[in-house]
Write a structure and sequence with these properties.
The chain is an all-alpha fold. The chain has helices spanning 21-49, 59-66, 69-97, 101-128, 141-148. Helices cover 68% and strands 0% of the residues. The longest helix has 29 residues, at 21-49.
Length: 149
């Protein structure tokens, strides 16, 4: 009788005590996926279906949206969930296909650092966005009214 070796048995680890991070990562992927579908379709509906549609999306539209705390938090929540969701997926793929432990560890750290950097940068952009920077005399009337206040 021929037996087949356990796949990737060279780098399997023994279950340690404490929280099962793989289980919580799996649950996060399902829950965040549901929320992302709601957030993304809401984002697309507001931006493309309401108002003037795609032709109405310009700098003034984005500036107006990012001036509203509701839309700031909507966009930040979508950003956080999407980046963590994507990073967790990349981590899972890396764990499945990279057999060298040191390379796998470096790649997982690189994925985590890249996601953390993008989350911080994106959050700063959303909450510190100022449409009045670089305002000139020939700017759009909407911006002149907004920046005068």
């Amino acid at each position: 009788m021929t037996t087949i070796a356990d796949p990737r048995s060279s780098h399997t680890t023994v279950r340690r005590s404490g929280p099962n991070l793989e289980k919580w990562g799996w649950i996060y992927m399902r829950v965040s996926g549901v929320f992302l579908v709601i957030l993304i379709f809401g984002h697309l509906f507001v931006n493309l279906m309401l108002g003037e549609g795609i032709s109405g999306i310009d700098f003034a539209f984005v500036a107006g949206k990012l001036a509203n705390p509701f839309w700031q938090w909507w966009d930040v929540l979508m950003l956080w969930l999407a980046l963590i969701h994507g990073a967790n997926g990349m981590r899972t793929i890396t764990n499945d296909y990279v057999t060298n432990a040191k390379v796998r560890r470096v790649l997982v750290w690189a994925i985590g650092l890249a996601a953390a950097f993008l989350i911080v940068l994106g959050t700063l952009v959303v909450f510190t966005f100022d449409p009045c920077i670089g305002l000139t005399s020939d700017s759009v009337d909407f911006l002149q009214e907004l920046c005068a206040a």
